[in-house]
């Protein structure tokens, strides 16, 4: 329904019109301006990674407090969360050119400390959809 694939956008010359983090105009989910390097929560959007506490990944949401002592290192590919905006909405692209993550090739690569959250994540990765809970 009018959604360009990355290849179609490139053919139109759209890739040259993508906004990068270095522009200083892209926004994170909390409304803050995205910069290169790690932010206060542990996200490095330019490097496609997060390193910090599990609750930091969810911006200290109430629901994650039972797991606040668990550490999380996560990397992801551009299909999961790109480090540029080619759609023009001022946010980093997710599953760009696709209606959802399904079929987009998107994949996060989490590594967790031991504990109940590790078991929960491994269960989700093995047997169901991967949901981080709102940090990304």
Write the layout of secondary structure elements.
Elements: H1 6-11, E1 19-20, E2 43-44, E3 49-53, H2 54-57, E4 71-76, E5 84-85, E6 108-112, H3 116-127
Antiparallel strand pairs: 1-5, 2-3, 3-4, 4-6
Strand order of the largest sheet: 2-3-4-6
Overall pLDDT level:
76
**How far from one another are the termini?**
26 Å
- The helix count comes to 3
Helix and strand content put the structural class at alpha+beta
**Most strands sheet:** 4 strands, antiparallel
Order of helices and strands: HEEEHEEEH
User: How many runs of DSSP E, i.e. beta strands?
Assistant: 6
Unreliable segments (pLDDT under 50, ≥5 consecutive)?
123-136
Strand proportion, as a percent range, falls in: 15-25%
What is the overall shape?
globular
Rg value: 16 Å
Query: Percent helix among the residues?
Result: 10-25%
Please give the domain count.
1
């Amino acid at each position: 329904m009018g959604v360009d694939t990355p290849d179609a956008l490139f053919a139109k010359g759209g890739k040259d019109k993508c906004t990068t983090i270095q522009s200083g105009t892209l926004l994170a989910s909390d409304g803050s301006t995205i910069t290169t390097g790690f932010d206060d929560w542990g996200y490095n959007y330019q490097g496609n990674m997060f390193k910090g506490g599990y609750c930091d990944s969810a911006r200290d949401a109430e629901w994650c407090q039972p797991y606040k002592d668990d550490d999380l290192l996560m990397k992801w590919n551009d299909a999961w969360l790109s480090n540029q905006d080619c759609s023009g909405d001022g946010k980093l692209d997710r599953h760009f050119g696709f209606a959802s993550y399904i079929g987009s090739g998107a994949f996060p690569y989490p590594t967790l400390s031991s504990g109940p959250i590790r078991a929960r994540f491994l269960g989700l990765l093995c047997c169901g959809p991967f949901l981080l809970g709102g940090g990304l």
